């Protein structure tokens, strides 16, 4: 007997074929309707979100929900403004479906086109953060992908409210199939979704490292994402200290509960005595707890301005705090900084602050992360800030897509060969025809 979950996934799979063929104007009209609907239904969305916030705060008090998840849960007018702006940015992006990536003449009258196309059905499993729904739905709609959403129970009211507002808006666009977007809501549905490798082409998990690792370990469906966000800032001996104060503060304090906030500060020993006291005072005023190695601890332990200072353990270098906690380590070279980052980091986002051009080049070439910043906050590692309109997630993978993933990570390609009766047999044997393999300056959409 087919389960309700499988029925929903099958419906999305069937709808994905139609969605893949919809023209750009139709998709943009649907996106405009989505943005307008969010604006119209602000009070309803915020009202539903308040129910989730009340429940979440009780769970946090009981130790059943982390502070980071509770902070990510909140939806207010500013957050809705961001959702609307993200959708409008996606409207302005080029439609990636049907682009000719390459064209080549195999022989006269035999032409091969490499053409971009949607992946098919995207499964998005996420904790908290209801703004994932409009971000991902807009990108998947524009790229022609059907989408299965599975949000956490802590945001059930918010997810349902936003999903209903968006899908109701899409229904008024005649050619967009209603079943292309599905929302799963019960806890039991997670394992059922993970089993749908026959229908779901790609999974994108968004949440804590434990959550993402669980998804990666329990499905045969390809997974795009990252399990940890252990990011670093390295203050080089030739750094401008004013720049370092600004970048290191913003990278930690601006929003500590996200994956692109730094968890470890590395400081060159030559400037540690000058840099650390003032930097630590800035962190102290923001309520940041400091976990220090021996050298940084000796510099800071007797300062009256520092309240919370502790000795770091080996585990601290591997910990994603998602909170106002920061590990600090003094290093004696850029090589040691790079070694520490590549050893303990999660290949997410790391920054160097330096005025030395050679060290900028060395750091950016040797640090094996999906985003490397030079004299700029790690918090810029974001699909919207990268000009992608929004993002479906941040990937530390080395295949298909890496870093903040926008629509370019939601399309793949197919090969289309156009001939007029050619046979492979004509290209074998003593009198075989020869392939020309000439590059063509032609687009598939202009050929037929």
TrEMBL record:
- Has the keyword rRNA-binding been applied to this entry? no
> So which domain of life are we looking at?
Archaea
Function, as annotated: Catalyzes the NADPH-dependent reduction of L-glutamate 5-phosphate into L-glutamate 5-semialdehyde and phosphate. The product spontaneously undergoes cyclization to form 1-pyrroline-5-carboxylate.
What pathway or pathways are given for this protein in its record? Amino-acid biosynthesis; L-proline biosynthesis; L-glutamate 5-semialdehyde from L-glutamate: step 2/2
GO molecular function (one): NADP binding
Per UniProt, what is one Pfam family of this protein?
Aldedh
Which taxonomic lineage is given here?
Answer: Archaea, Methanobacteriati, Methanobacteriota, Stenosarchaea group, Methanomicrobia
Q: HAMAP family from the entry?
A: ProA
Q: Which GO terms describe its biological process?
A: L-proline biosynthetic process
Q: What name does the UniProt record give this protein?
A: Gamma-glutamyl phosphate reductase
Keyword Cytoplasm recorded: yes
Which reactions fall under this protein's catalytic activity?
Answer: L-glutamate 5-semialdehyde + phosphate + NADP(+) = L-glutamyl 5-phosphate + NADPH + H(+)
Pull one GO CC term from this UniProt entry.
cytoplasm
Q: So what family is this one in? A: Belongs to the gamma-glutamyl phosphate reductase family.
Q: Which UniProt keywords apply?
A: Amino-acid biosynthesis, Cytoplasm, NADP, Oxidoreductase, Proline biosynthesis
Documented EC number(s):
1.2.1.41
**Residue span(s) of domain Aldehyde dehydrogenase:** 13-286
Where is the protein localized?
Answer: Cytoplasm
